[in-house]
Design goal:
The complex is a heterotrimer of chains A (238), B (234) and C (274). Chain A is an alpha/beta fold and 238 residues long. Helices cover 37% and strands 24% of the residues of chain A. Chain C has eleven helices and twelve strands. The chains are: A alpha/beta (238), B mainly alpha (234), C alpha/beta (274). At the A-B interface, α2, β5 and α3 of A face α5 and α6 of B.
């Protein structure tokens, strides 16, 4: 039985940048199952929190603890950025890269990558330069590249913010399928409709703190704080 | 103006008549410079990549020093190498003075900072772009360097070609450490200097045109082989 | 990159061609000797007769002496008596052997603004140039030619160190480069006859004064001493010396002409010594 890296525990974690406190102090636990969506007004710290949990930011104070040591834990995670980073390689090389980093043989890695390329609809574009794909195609590639390592936890930072409806639907479909396969998904979005479609539970951030946390139904129907009420009714929350 | 026209005619006749001396000199110029570029690149490319990716205490100072070394006057490098390789100098016993090897050494010293600087800049830009992605995938430092060097290979070829251009046209250093000895260490640039000194401007210009054509040909060949300038490639 | 392997193969074959294995010797000679073109005639003959590759380093007298002192060459051929005597006295050269002489000439613009072509002696010509403050280009590089020039100014009662840069220009260069500069400035310049005759960029300049015996220019060959530099190829250097003073070499030297004019007068003493 392979050890799980969850639950993840934040204890008084604080992130400061340029003299300002972006996050915290925050103490939260992320449990082993579900599709958690992080919401909140701009500047509430959604992106920073995700990066902190994944290890792309370091806490100024407090701690971020997985069930395994950080380096091992990171091997079981993956991150999809808001703007996808395409490497200067072909589609198949991009998707296969994380496997190659882990020491997998080229033939096998490329075969797996081809399989994922099919899933995301890029099966006919394997040898194409990834940098000339459309925005939606790049983001689908990024998701495939994240899922190919079979992560336990998948982070996504507003992945469909810059995409059209069709691409958004396709990616949401892939994410739901991944969740069904057992991937723990932690995603930030500011799109209410998307949150309703995907979330099992919501973490609402406000000024770098967890302001409210509830199961999705409960949050949408009976928000408890004035800020979340304002947010849900579409007001600008500062 | 007459000299320019005469120069072009001289260049044409030297090539067309398969002038043995010319081909010997051209071959030697390529031998010296190509060897220098290969060795310098082997040092400079990983150095540039290492500087871009690794954080260490004197990093900024090292980068500044590297950029400053680009401005090393070649003739000073030549003097320095001469003093080291002279029979009266520390490495005199190697007997390297006035050989093509001494010229290669001098050229390596001159072009390594240039290639490293350009490589560093190219890889630094790419690293800024790949940073979060490569960290997220838990790559080791060596994996990062290899990935960056490979993905930036077109820019790195340009860096090496910049080194080639600088070396093939260099004359001060190799004159001092090579001695411009006929059939031994004479190359295109030192031959041009010699003919200029003899007042034979037509021949000097002719050799000059050949040198320019050679540099262009090498550049085009490298670009063709690595398909750098095709559309929608990096 | 499909062509990577063949490309690397080509590069490595270019990089590592080997040199030949004949006997060879390094001799530093002055620019004025080389530019005469005499070495182009002599070297193939030396190769034929002695099987010896002579590697010539064509540098100024000062640098030739420096190379000799450093032991970077096996012999030197220069034309600066005082410096040569010092060189031998200090033990760097085993001895000096006179080989041949040529003469210096004073070259200037065809219009001859200082009117030196009517002078009877060299010091008179130079005095005219100084009085007229006509533009004059000097080697300025402590070479044999430069030292000769300085000595000539002194016989004319002048001190070049006091000359104003408005007319006395020190090129700090070899004979050819200095001639280029002088022709380019329509200036007067002292050169050895051989270099001038071989020079291809004469412009409007020509020889305006020559023939004074004081312009006599002696070339000597100095092998480097094995006591100072154990690695020096003293046997080969002596072989070369014997060849240079042989009848065959002396005949070649004496019959070398440019445009019908003889350049050098061979004066080696066949039994050796200065």
């Amino acid at each position: 039985m392979v050890a799980s890296i969850l639950p993840l525990t934040l204890t008084d974690a604080t992130v400061r940048k340029g003299g300002k406190t972006i996050i915290g102090p925050m103490s939260e636990t992320i449990g082993p199952s579900g599709f958690t969506i992080f919401m909140g007004p701009n500047g509430s710290g959604k992106t920073t929190l995700l990066r902190l949990m994944h290890g792309l930011e370091h806490p100024r104070g407090g701690s971020v603890t997985w069930q395994l040591p950080a380096a091992q834990a990171r091997m079981k995670q993956a991150f999809v950025f808001q703007t996808p980073v395409m490497m200067r390689r072909t589609v198949v090389e991009n998707i296969a890269y994380p496997l190659r980093v882990r020491g997998e043989a080229k033939n096998w890695a490329h075969a797996e990558a081809a399989r994922w390329a099919d899933i995301i609809g890029l099966g006919n574009a394997l040898e194409q330069n990834a940098e000339v794909l459309s925005g939606g195609e790049k983001q689908k590639l990024a998701v495939a590249r994240a899922l190919i390592v079979q992560p336990e936890v998948l982070f996504l930072d507003e992945p469909t913010a810059n995409l059209d409806g069709k691409a958004t639907r396709e990616i949401e479909g892939i994410l739901l399928a991944a969740q069904a396969d057992g991937v723990r998904i932690l995603m930030a979005t500011h799109h209410l409709g998307q949150a309703r479609r995907l979330a099992s539970d919501i973490i609402f951030l406000y000024q770098g703190q967890v302001h409210e946390r509830a199961a999705a139904e409960e949050f949408f129907n009976t928000p408890r704080t004035p800020e979340s009420k304002s947010f849900l009714s579409g007001d600008i929350v500062e | 103006m007459r000299d320019l026209w005469q120069g072009m005619i001289e260049a044409f006749w030297l090539i067309a008549s398969f002038n043995a001396d010319l081909y010997e000199i051209v071959l030697r110029s390529l031998q010296v410079t190509v060897t220098a570029v290969i060795i310098a690149s082997a040092i400079a490319l990983p150095l540039g990549a290492g500087l871009a990716v690794n954080r260490f205490r004197y990093r900024r100072a090292t980068i500044s020093l590297l950029n400053a070394l680009m401005g090393l006057p070649p003739v000073v490098v030549g003097l320095f190498v001469y003093i080291l390789l002279s029979r009266s100098g520390p490495f005199g016993v190697l007997g390297l003075l006035f050989t093509p090897t001494a010229m290669i050494i001098a050229q390596i010293i001159i072009i390594t900072p240039l290639i490293a600087s350009i490589a560093h800049q190219a890889i630094r830009d790419l690293w800024a772009s790949y940073h979060d992605l490569l960290i997220s995938m838990n790559t080791t430092k060596w994996q990062r360097m290899r990935t960056l060097i490979w993905d930036a290979r077109r820019s790195l070829i340009t860096a090496s070609l910049a080194g080639f251009g600088r070396a093939i046209g260099e004359v001060g250093a190799i004159m001092i450490v090579g001695g411009n000895i006929d059939h031994l260490t004479r190359v295109l640039t030192t031959a041009i200097a010699l003919e200029t000194g003899k007042g034979d401007f037509s021949l000097a210009l002719g050799l000059g045109f050949i040198l320019i054509a050679l540099a262009i040909a090498v550049n085009m060949a490298i670009h063709a082989i690595s398909r750098t300038e095709r559309a929608s490639t990096w | 990159m499909r062509y990577f392997s063949p490309l690397m193969g080509l590069i490595f074959s270019l990089a590592f061609s080997t040199a030949s294995l004949a006997d060879d010797i390094k001799v530093a000679v002055t620019t004025s000797f080389h530019n005469s073109g005499l070495s182009d005639i002599l070297l193939p003959e030396i190769k034929k007769d002695l099987g010896l590759d002579v590697h010539l380093l064509v540098v100024g007298t000062g640098q030739a002496l420096k190379l000799g002192r450093a032991g970077d060459v096996d012999a030197i051929l220069v034309h600066s008596r005082n410096a040569e005597d010092t060189f031998v006295a200090e033990g760097y050269g085993t001895h000096r052997r006179e080989i041949m002489y040529n003469d210096f000439v004073i070259i200037g613009p065809g219009s001859d603004p200082a009117g030196i072509s009517t002078a009877e002696k060299a010091n008179e010509a130079l005095a005219k140039i100084a009085d007229a403050e006509a533009i004059f280009v000097s080697r300025g590089d402590d070479s044999g030619t430069h030292r000769k020039e300085t000595a000539l100014w002194q016989t004319a009662g002048q001190n070049p160190e006091g000359f104003d840069v408005s007319w006395y220009r020190e090129a700090g260069a070899g004979m050819g480069a200095t001639l280029n500069t002088a022709v380019g400035m329509d200036a007067y310049v002292i050169s050895d006859r051989a270099s001038w005759l071989k020079f291809k960029n004469k412009g409007h300049s020509k020889i305006l004064f020559s023939g004074d015996p004081v312009l006599f220019n002696q070339y000597a060959y100095l092998p480097i001493s094995k006591e100072k530099h154990a690695h020096t190829k003293d046997e080969l250097a002596l072989q070369l010396e014997e060849w240079l003073v042989s009848k065959k070499a002396q005949d070649i030297i004496g019959s070398y002409t440019i445009g019908g004019e003889t350049l050098f007068t061979p004066n080696a003493n066949a039994s050796g010594g200065t």
